[in-house]
Amino acid sequence: MPITHPDLPYARNALEPYMSAKTFEFHHGKHLKAYVDNTNKLIAGTQLENADLETIVKETAKDSSKAGIFNNAAQVWNHIFFFKCMKPNGGGVPSGKIAEMINAAFGSHQKFVDEFKNAGVTQFGSGWAWLVLDGRQLKVFKTPNAENPLAHGLKPLLGVDVWEHSYYLDYQNRRPDYLAAFVDKLINWDFVNSLLT
After folding, report:
1. pTM of the model
2. Most buried by CB count within 10 Å: which residue of 13, 144, 167, 182?
């Protein structure tokens, strides 16, 4: 079963002014589609041809001979997850179980925000910043390139793309401003909470 290029969970202009329709035109319409197409080409005729995306990522993560498959499949998974992590009128202080867990793990929402944004700012070059569950412990985690928490046996709850293609049209080189907008205006805390049930 081929890996599919899913629709965005909202209209391309739904996150404006914080993320533009033009960014989604390239990010979702071109970058993600290329990763999907490349993944399908690379798994064709292999034992992974009918595997689901998460299985492909986990089974190729530590195998350098399958780096091409991993890089493309992980980027498909990462982007689908990232787009779900945002919604119109999102961001701010969460409620529900994730709020309790953040306060227990970090001491306050603001301390989490500071650590999460710092992970995104300090990820050198391309990569991702994540909020993950390591067993029962919440942690902020960052990964380079296509790498993601699944490759480390961690459960991702929130992820933000810090590859330049995710923000350059809207923020140029101002990655801290992009991360502030993501945290303050875009995070879909309902999605994060849904991963805890």
Report:
1. 0.96
2. 182
